Automatic annotation (TrEMBL), chain A:
Belongs to the HypD family. It comes from the Bacteria. One of its GO terms (biological process) is protein maturation. InterPro entries: Hyd_form_HypD (IPR002780), HypD_1 (IPR042243), HypD_2_sf (IPR042244). This is Hydrogenase formation protein HypD. One of its GO terms (molecular function) is carbon monoxide binding. NCBIfam families: hypD. It comes from bacterium (Candidatus Ratteibacteria) CG_4_9_14_3_um_filter_41_21. Keywords: Iron, Metal-binding.
Automatic annotation (TrEMBL), chain B:
It holds the Pfam family HupF_HypC. GO terms for biological process: protein maturation. PANTHER family: HYDROGENASE MATURATION FACTOR HYBG (PTHR35177:SF2). This is HypC/HybG/HupF family hydrogenase formation chaperone. PROSITE patterns: HUPF_HYPC. The lineage of its organism: Bacteria, Candidatus Ratteibacteria. The gene is hypC. Belongs to the HupF/HypC family.
Amino acid sequence: MFDFFRDEKIAQKLAERIKRLSDGKHFKLMHVCGTHEQVIAQSGLRDLLPQNLEVISGPGCPVCCTPNSEIDLAIELALKGHLITTFGDMLRVPGSKSSLTKVRVLGGKVKVVYSIQDAIELSKEKKDLEIVHCAIGFETTAPSTAVVILNDAPSNFSIICSHRLIPPAMEALLISGECKIDGFIAPGHVSTIIGSEPYRKMAKEYNRPIVITGFEPIDILYGIFLLLKQIKEKRNNVEIEYTRAVKPEGNLMAIKKMEEVFEICDSNWRGLGNIPKSGLRLKKKFENHDAERKFNLRIEKSSDILPGCICDKILKGLNYPPDCPSFGTRCTPEDPLGACMVSSEGTCSTYFKYADEKK
Amino acid sequence: MCLALPMKVVKIKDKEGTVELGGVKRRANLQLLKDVNIGDYLLIHAGFAIQKLNEKEAEKTLRLLKIL
């Protein structure tokens, strides 16, 4: 059933329709999901698209968007002897002075987990330790954090809350107007949770079509086709291509749990700066699980882009990785300069692995 | 990070399921979904089922693409 979404003949047919619809005019479409970039690069979809159609990556990788200050906080807590749990990609992201990998080499307790549930189980096993989980991720991941908090998380468990929201970041890009985007390929898995409603106001206000798109090659091509069709027909709607997984109302149960646990706050993004109402923090009644409050530490502002790195421009969709003078020379996945080269879902890392040219 | 894989439910015990993809089995927390049944395809993200996949909708997309 789902194999069909990789059918080569359908892909060719869609590519032909896309070419016809774009009619030689220049269009720039943005996706905001690291997984979209991986599928596009792995399947060589850019080779199927006409030269006049750009598909650029935006702030779609939560690891890349996490500012140094939050990594510094995890490092500080590890150095104090607490056990830090994190998803793998976070390990090597350089903070202001060090990274969690380096701290681990120095004897700091840092453990990679597959799920926040593993961190909970560790907290139950190691009652004499404080377990601090780096809770990163967009709306796709935040509900799982909400579940474990609502399930009476152990008292020695807390989180550094780095959950961020995608629609405010998309809107911030439109407000800045720096990147001329003609339409958004909206993230399918974020949207399984939030549905299509949170994008609607933005589509109308800024006159940009938005298509919520799945992750098979056919999904992405069909999403692009639907965007171009809207542009041609001068419509600015939110459409769902990924109907097998996304309902217009989203996952109401997940939304309810998120609302019970979190409140919306302003948030600082690496490369994008402060974006109003784009972050989540634990409500006061769960403050005993909020590492910042529990250990009386403050997340300070940090300088997030090193000289010679253009991660900020990559995250804003202003440049492609090969435009960076450090790409593939001073900055490689083995020895990364910026966050977008570290995470397996970072745009620079994906380009390094699968493509080294723009198109 | 937002990677989620479609996996088939093979066992359910309370709010935890065993899901399978290509012979690989994993535990999955089912607390974000209602009415999960054995045989359902779920999207699994970081150990949690975040949505049920709708086969009828997939067929609809398939038909739309065939007549494109």
